[in-house]
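note to self: dont lose this again. the chain is below, predicted strucutre after it. 204 aa total, dont forget to put it in the shared folder this time
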Amino acid sequence: MIDLDLLFQWGAITKKVVAEEKVVEEDHPSYYYYQLLDGRLRAVNINEQGKEYLQYIVNPGETFAEIPLVIPTTFQITVIADVPSEIVKLPRDRFETLLASQPHLQAELSKVLANRLRLKYIITKELCNHNPQHSILSLLEYLQNEGKHICKACNKVELTRQQIADMLGLRVETVIRAIRDLYDRELLVIQNGKVFYPARVKSS
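---
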């Protein structure tokens, strides 16, 4: 989200994390602005039984765990490294000064938060209709419109069936059956076990 050179000019530092290491934890205070430099992270909520509910996936260049930077609260999510990753973090006070000196960054941060909220609304709405096929299509349409997790060149969905299930609060078996039904209805494509959306696979 923010140019790396600018972050480093303001005193940002990098930190490497190993796979499955927690970067931030739910209910803990926030002292930094975070941005992913390399790797992949997942933002989740974890219930008392240890089950994860996926909120979003963080790719290089994206920020995460931003809400405590905007309102006085603790982290609402736990962020975990999917693979060995490297993050950039800037102390909160310096980030606030940076925002004040670069008003356009405030607009970009607001857009990130608005998109996260929009995704939450979409998922909440889909949880009410109890139609897994419709829920999956709504999620895929959102991701396609946002240019996230769907290959622009070939339409391949870059989420596993388990990740889709975790995002929608469904059982993975339900997602597998629903995706097969959508394939039978020609609403998406399955090739070599991979899912493509929209249904027409683009030639590379």
